[in-house]
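Team,

Forwarding the record for the chain on the shared tracking sheet. I've put the sequence and predicted structure together so nobody has to dig through attachments.
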Amino acid sequence: MGKSDCATKVFLSDRGVFADLVNCGVFGGRQVVGKDDLQEANCEEVVSFQGAGRGSGHRERLRDLAMNVVVREAHGTKFIVVGVENQRKTHLAMPARCMLYDAMRHAENLRRIVAENRRGRRPGRDLLSGLRPEDRLPPVVTLVVYWGRGGWKGPRTLHEMIDFPAEGLRPLCADYKLNLIEPAAMGDADFRKFRTDLGAVLHYVKVQDDQEELERLLHEDERFKTLGREAAEVIAAVTGAEISIDEHEETIDMCKAIRQIKQSAYTEGKQSGFAEGKQ
């Protein structure tokens, strides 16, 4: 696992940050879930199969992160499965990859429901499928967080990956859309929906190559004066910013850290110029 992969995974593993991501990425910024509504989920997707003449087998895929998210409604409590894929570079097969992850999770949830029905001999179950008419699968959502420079440069839907020989086939082939968290496509109002340091980190990723916008952001956004250490580590890992981070400090003043970097570069430049002048 690379440095940026490790930093983003640790950061998003914080339940408060993960809940913030769910509220903004799934519910449009509405405060639907909190950190106490999250339950650890297996990141390993496994599907079993039986092959003709070759016995049974299984396939495994590993997500970056996954949580069972409890959604409390007026008429009851339900849960959804939310998986997260961190991407620093565009993955051209991402729609198919996420579709596979979600299909494998649906298959596993289906297997569990059928096993419970058969084990409990529940009345009304269909002998062919093992399901009862009232059985339902929980929703499965995969969020792709893009930490790279600029916008996502690959397909955003499965249809964009398919070479249709005739346009009439398109409606007959199921599509699959990426749920993309893409800083380059977000505006100030979008970043303000986040209640944790995640919004500040994503905003920094967007403006990292625009020096004027970056300085404005660091000076005007109060969150950067007391940014959490893990958030600062993500910025350093995904943007390459040489931020001095004290592992004993819980918060980082990003304005001060950036000034120190500039001062150090200026001092080194003067010393280098002085040394060249003496030669």
